Task: structure prediction
Amino acid sequence: MNKVVAARLARASKKVARRHFLCYSLLLIGAILFTRLVSPTFGQTEDPNAAVVINALTHPDLGIVASLSLINLTEPNERRAVDNEILRVGFDPILRRRAIGLSIHGHLAYVTSFNLPIAGEPSSGDNIYIINLEDREFVGEIPIQAGTTPQQVALVSDQKLYVTCAATHEVHVVDIDNRNVTKVLTGSFNKPTGITLLNGKAYVTNPAWEWDPVARKTTYYESTVVVIDTQTDIILKSIPVPTNAGAILNDGEFTVIVKTTGNYNDISGHLVLIDATTDEIIETVKLGFAPGASALNSEKQLFIQGSWQNPGLLIYDIAAQNWIRDEDDMITDFSNDPDTSISGGLTFAPNGNLYITQPDWSGGGQDFVRVMDIADASLLRSYRVGTGANNLGIATITPRRQDINNDGFINMKDMIIAGRFLGDEGPGIRADVNGDQVVNILDLVLIGQER
Result:
């Protein structure tokens, strides 16, 4: 080979090597910064600025399908704050598509959905929709096996989620990146519905009922709470609980709270408190009715809707294991508006206010989200939303350029992607976090600083 050409090739090779060394050095520095600066959890710390409402009603005769509404919590005008039915989940009302579970992380919402089956047939179109709340569009779909009727979803990490599947008595393990089911947990479930995560474990409720269409009767079997190790997906324990266990939540520390509703006849509901360290029941509280929705605030006060015959709010202190307001002392109306109903679904916002969904299942359009100040049970806001307003979640919807792959998480994946663009210059580069038209160490630092 010509010596001049060889020398030029050697210099070019060294230049490329130096650039690669520089890029990887910067990436390494950025990774170190990332590990030092980022919290080990994958939650968001910005103040929430939106409420996401699942409008669950489907009504073929009225052309109504399931949909999502968004409430801007920073907008003082109640009418302007609501963007109704920004996305239609049902598409075709004839299919009677159900939108059941809702889990929100950052600007992404995960919604479980399926088409209601004709009598005797399995469900169809079973999946989890991924919705970008900032752009207000569907950005993905995780298919779940037809006939499973997915119920509730829980994000275990930025890579994995669990979804309960009632019809097939299973819990499916989902790879979020690849958007597919990687494992099916079975053998210990009976109509699994609710799910909550605490201390590296998942707790799944099994209502264990069976509908006989011929006799037109529901039979209730033994309800349980199944405990799963979220690292290994191994089933650790099955805890027997009273009849028809459904909703389940936790206090963020040591206690899992299960609500059972009984058989709506001669068996009433219960509250069951489970020690998340030993997975043993520490308290069972008998109720004299079939309870409705429930929500827990930061003071570990559980607010529970009374029965449909006797609506109102009861309050149970989880830490003290005692009633603050029992069935004889319910909050029956808003202190400043006694004519407004407080029956419906319950969700607490981080500021301590209680959000109450009030669905109109007739399709008449009298669907609201009410906001209560629990200090004096006063009505703070009243938003008119979509038909069948049912589930509600609190979200943080802000532009996040550090989330380079737009998966709702800012983590090492974003750092690695940014590293591939190190040294690139020009407009519109997705790894150019600070917008200065060059990808360098500053962009990596910004990714690392984001929590």
In short: The two ends are 54 Å apart (CA to CA). The chain is about 10% helix and 40% strand. Residues 50-395 form a domain with the Methylamine Dehydrogenase; Chain H fold (CATH 2.130.10.10).
